[in-house]
Amino acid sequence: MYMTYLMCGYAATLALVLLGCRIGARSVPGLRGVGLLSWALFLGLVGDLFLAMRPFAPAWITILVANEALFASSLLIYCATAETLAVRMRFLFWGIGLLVVSFATNGYFTYLHPELTVRILIYSGTSAVYSAATALLLFQPENPPARFAGLVSTLRFPTVALAWLQILIVAQYTLRSVLAVWFPPGDFAHIDLIQLGFSYAIMVLNLAAGCGLIWLALCIHRRDLQMVARTDSLTGLLNRRAFEETLTRQLRRANHTGRFLVLLLLDIDRFKVVNDTWGHLAGDRVIQKVSSTLLVGLRPSDVLSRIGGEEFIALLQDATVAQAEEVAERLRTEIADLTGLPGGAQITISIGVAQSRQDETPDELFHRCDEAMYRSKEGGRNLVSVSEVPLSGLVSTCEPAGYATRGTSG
C-alpha cells in the first residue's frame, strides 16, 4: 500500500498548489500561462487520485484514465510554458498524437498482455518526452530590441533554472526506466523501494516545476509592466524617462572605457501645421510613420526614443561623428521622401548631432545636441547640424571643429 499512501499525499499537495495558483491568478490579472497551468494541476490531481484507487477500482480507471490524465497534465504544462513565454506551441500536434499512442499501448499491456514493467517504461518515456519539449522551449533564446535587452536579461535566471529542472526530470524518468528493466517491480500497490523512491523524487520535481512556472509567469508579468512604463504608447519606442536612464548608464560606461557616444536629436518641422490642417489623428499617424522610418534606418544596437510631441532622440554606440552625420543625412532624406501621409502632406525634420566628451554628464551632452538641432531650425529647417567637438575628443581626426551644417533648407 506504500504507493497508494504516496499518491494520496501527493494529491493533497497538488490540491494546495492548485489553490495557490488560482489565488495568484485572481490577485494578478493578466498572468500568462496560469490558466493552463491550473488545468494541468487539476488533471494531475485527478490522475493521482485515480492511481491511489488501484487496489479498489477497475484497471481502466486506475491505469488507462489515470495515466492519460497525467500525460495530459504534462502536455498542458508544456502549453502553459509556451503561453507564458508567448511562443508557438510547435510540439502540440505531436503531443496530442503521443497521448493517443500511449493510451493504445497502455491498453494492450493492461488487458491483452499485462506487464507492469512495460507500463512503467511507457509512462516514464512519454513523460520524459513532454518534459524534454518543455525544456527546449525554455532554452530558446529571446532576441529583444536593444531598448529592452536589460529587462529580458532579468528573466534569464528563472528561465534557465526552470529548463534545467525539466532536464533533471527527464534524467529521473530515464534512470527509472533503466532500473525498472534491471529490477522488475512486483505489483503497483506493493512496489519495491527503488521504484517508490524514484516516484517520490519525480513528484517533488514536478511540483517544483509547477511552482517554478508560476514564478516565471510573475517575473514575465513584472517585465511586461516595466516595458509599458518605459514605452511611448503611440509609437512603441522608449519614452523620455527610459531613454534618460539608458543614456546615463551608457554614458557612464563610455566614460569608464574611454569610448564615445553620439546623440541625434530629431524634430519634425512645422508639425503644428499638420495638426491644424488635418487634425490630431492625422498628426498621430504622421508621428507613427516617422518613428517607424527612423527605427528601420537605425541599427538594432542603436536606441531610439520619442521624448516629446514631435521630437525624437537616437543614441548611436560605437559610431564616429562622420558616421553619425551620414546616418542623420540618410534619415533626413528618407523622411523628406515619405509618401502616403494624411492629406498628401510633405514633412521634413531638423537634426542635431553631438558626440560625447570625456566625463560629460547626460544633461551637458543633451544640451549641446539640442543647440545643434536649433541651429538646423534657424538655418532654414530640413538640415543636419553637428555640435562642436574639441580635437581631444574626436574619434576621427578628419572631423571639423566648430559646427557643420548640411542639407537643404526648407
Description:
The chain has a 6-stranded mixed β-sheet with strand order 2-3-1-4-5-6, with helices on both faces. About 4% of the residues have low confidence. The protein is an alpha+beta fold. Helix 5 runs antiparallel to helix 7. It has 2 domains: 229 residues, Rhopdopsin 7-helix transmembrane proteins (Up-down Bundle), CATH 1.20.1070; 168 residues, Reverse transcriptase/Diguanylate cyclase domain (Alpha-Beta Plaits), CATH 3.30.70. Strand 2 and strand 3 form a beta hairpin. The chain is built from 13 helices and 6 strands.
Summarize this structure as a short list of keywords or feature phrases.
410 residues, alpha+beta, Rhopdopsin 7-helix transmembrane proteins, Alpha-Beta Plaits, six-stranded mixed beta sheet, 13 helices, 64% helix, 8% strand
- CATH class category of the largest domain: Mainly Alpha
Shape: elongated
Radius of gyration: 30 Å
The CATH topology of the largest domain turns out to be: Rhopdopsin 7-helix transmembrane proteins
Mind summarizing the main beta sheet? 6 strands, mixed
H and E string: HHHHHHHHHEHHEEHEHEE
Query: Which CATH-level-2 architecture of the largest domain?
Result: Up-down Bundle
Produce a short descriptive summary.
By secondary structure, the protein is an alpha+beta fold.
In terms of topology, how is this protein built?
Elements: H1 2-27, H2 34-52, H3 59-85, H4 92-112, H5 116-139, H6 149-153, H7 156-182, H8 193-230, H9 240-257, E1 261-268, H10 271-278, H11 280-297, E2 303-306, E3 311-317, H12 321-336, E4 349-355, H13 362-378, E5 383-386, E6 404-407
